[in-house]
Amino acid sequence: MQFSDVENCAERMRVQKKVLIVDDSPAQVKLIQGLLEPEGYWPVGLNDPRRVEEAIAMERPSVILLDVVMPERNGFQVCRELKSNAEFNSIPVILVTSKDTASDRYWGQQQGADGYVTKPFTREELLRAVRRFA
Amino acid sequence: MRNTNVLILTDDAEFARLLTACWQVERQLPGICVVTSEFWREADTSSPDLIVVGPLKDGKLGDVLRSMESNTALILCAPSEAKELGLLRKKYPKLLHVPLREDWTQVVLLLAGESLRRTEALKLARQAERHAAQYANQATLGRYMYDMKHNVNNALTSLLGNAELLLLEPGGLSAQSLAQIKTIHTMALRINEVMQRFSSLASELREGETQSQVETEEVNSTPIPRR
What predicted TM-score, i.e. pTM, was given to this entire model? Predict the structure, then answer.
């Protein structure tokens, strides 16, 4: 990395809020990145929910957008574990999921989620949820 | 015993009269039909829950029993020395033998009451099994639809989101492309509205489940009549 790259990176970090997008579908990650970037956010995608803690430690995001239905480790599980970890529990977690029943929302809340966006969402719905925290 | 039927099959009118009279003083009376061996095959007995066989003309007992299905609940009132009794018991596992002693009516009523209660309990169990199978099918359908909804919603997210992304910078698009993307966006929103209706599915399934529980409670609270 060139010095100028480091400088650019530092400048970007100062100005832009990082959003970690955790979704097993690369298409969904790409879409959310596309929706957040024009709004001045710095979206970082992650397709493997088992590596969330690692990604947070490296990226230090301001907010996490977390899918629920994922293989190996579901979003409820990830959220519960993040919220019970003193190192990560201050980072807002927004569940972004197609699970849209009242009991799903309630369960998400029980896991400590700070926000809930149901798929399919409009650009405005997603941005409104993100702006609450970053 | 309200919905049970008993057939009294005898050629002895006094036997039938006495048994019917005794039954009528009981609190629970099944539907009773009396038929002689002569009309047994012709009579429309509409599959009785229990057949009480009384004294028959000589040689008729074998004929009558042979024409019955082996799973028929049967009370045979005959002298204890009846020759065929041993063989009959093997062929008709549900056959109960009541020797014609002085208390035979009481014994028949007692056995018939138990047999009919068992029949009724079996009917209820079969009904419950049918309902359970029905609800299991509906639950499978519900789960299937719920899974499909999840997949459709994911696809719809991409459709709607990418259309919105393209509409964010309409400058580079021709008027025709722009109109087409707007149509895609509108249609995606419409599909979303349709999919929202599936959200009521969960509550409808819960409603169905509650109804089935109410039915079970009703069946449960209906006392099985005892003598």
Answer: 0.61
